[in-house]
Amino acid sequence: MENKGVLIAAIAFVFGSFILMIVGLVYESYKAKQQRELVASLQSESRPVATVAPQDDYSVYKTMVGDDGREMVQIPEGPFTMGSKEGDPDEVPDHQVYLGTYYMDKKEVTQAEYDRFVRMTKRGKPFVPVFEDDISKILKPTLPAMGMSWSDAVAYCKWAGKRLPTEAEWEKAGRGEGKRRYPWGEEFGTGRANVDGDEDGFRYLAPPGSFESGRSPFGLYDMTGNVAEWVADTYDEQYYRKSPYRDPPGPEASRTHGSRNDFRRRCGGPTAPSASGAPKMRRSSVPNPGGPETRLS
User: Fold this and answer.
1) Which of 13, 28, 51 finishes a domain?
2) Which of 1, 112, 161, 201 could tie 67 with a disulfide, CB 3.0–4.6 Å?
3) Prior bond to 93 cis, omega within 30?
4) For residue 115, with 0-12 CB atoms within 10 Å meaning exposed, 13-18 middle and 19 or more buried, which class applies?
5) Sign of the C-alpha dihedral, residues 72, 74, 79, 81?
6) Which domain holds residue 39?
7) Phi, psi of 280 (to 5 degrees)
8) How far apart are CA 169 and CA 62, in angstroms?
9) What is the CATH number of the domain that holds 78?
C-alpha cells in the first residue's frame, strides 16, 4: 500500500514537471515572438519608407474662356518671391511681391489664332527678319505666333478683351509662390521645354502645350523655352530695387506708354538653362480688375 502511494506521487511529480516544462516552452516561445515583433517594429520605424510624389492637380485652379476662345487659368491672390539672389543685374535682388487675383492664358497664342486677328482687323502680319533655314519650317498654324511688335501684342490683347501682363504677373504665373529655379523645379533636365537644339524632339519651335512635365505650378505651358513673350513693362535694370510690394505696375514709362523708342521687356525663348534663379519666360494675361492677360511673342 505504501509502495502504491509512492508510485502515485512519482507519477504526479513527473506529470507536473511535464506540464511545467510545456508552460515554460510556451512562455519562451511567446517571449521570442514578442522580441521578434519588437525588433521588426523598430527596424521598420528606422528604415525610410519610399513614397510616391503625388501628381500635380491643376484642377484646383479656376479656369475661364476669354473672348478669343482661349482657356485661361486663375492665378490666386497672394505673395511670391520675384527675382533671384544671384544673376544678371536686372534680376536681383530676390524680393517678396504681393499680387491680386488675375487670369493668364494657359498656352501661347498660335499662328492660326493670331492670323484670325489679322484678318478681322486688317492689321499687318508679323515679320520674322532672320532665320537660318527654310522659313516655312517655322510658319505653321500650330506653332506659336511670333515676330509681332509690342504694339501688335497690345492690339491683339485689346481685341481679345485682355491685356499684356506685367513682368511680376508673368513671373508668378511661371514660377509659383516659392523660389523654384524653373517652372517644374530646381533641375532643368530634358523633355520639359523647347530649347536650342533638337534634344527635346523639336528642331525649331514646338506647338504650344507639347511639354506636359514642364508645366508651371499653376498648370501653364511653355513658361520656359519656345518663344519669348511680351509683357507690359518697359525695361529698367534697377526696377527690382525700388518696385512696390503690392501689384508693381512696372517702370514709370510703361504706365505713361513712354515713347516709340522705349525698350520693352520680353521673356522666355529657346535658350539654354538660365544661370540665375529666376525663370526666363513671358506671355499675356488678365487680372480681375482690368481683364485677363494674353501671351504673345
Assistant:
1) 51
2) 161
3) yes
4) middle
5) negative
6) 1-51
7) -100, 100
8) 17
9) 3.90.1580.10
Number of domains in the chain: 2
The three grid cell numbers given for residue 254, joined into one nine-digit string: 510703361
pLDDT of residue 290: 42
The neighbour count for residue 117, using CB atoms within 10 Å, is: 19
- The pLDDT tens digits for 217-263 are 999 999 999 999 999 998 888 888 889 999 999 886 554 333 323 34
Query: What was the pLDDT predicted at 155?
Result: 96
CA–CA dist 297, 149 (Å, integer): 8
Q: Count the alpha carbons within 13 Å of 90 in the hemisphere toward its beta carbon.
A: 12
Q: How far apart are CA 249 and CA 289, in angstroms?
A: 13
Those residues of the chain that have pLDDT short of 50 are 6, 14, 20, 23, 38-39, 41-54, 255-264, 270-290
Q: Which residues contact 129 (CB under 8 A, 6 or more apart)?
A: 147
pLDDT of residue 57: 86
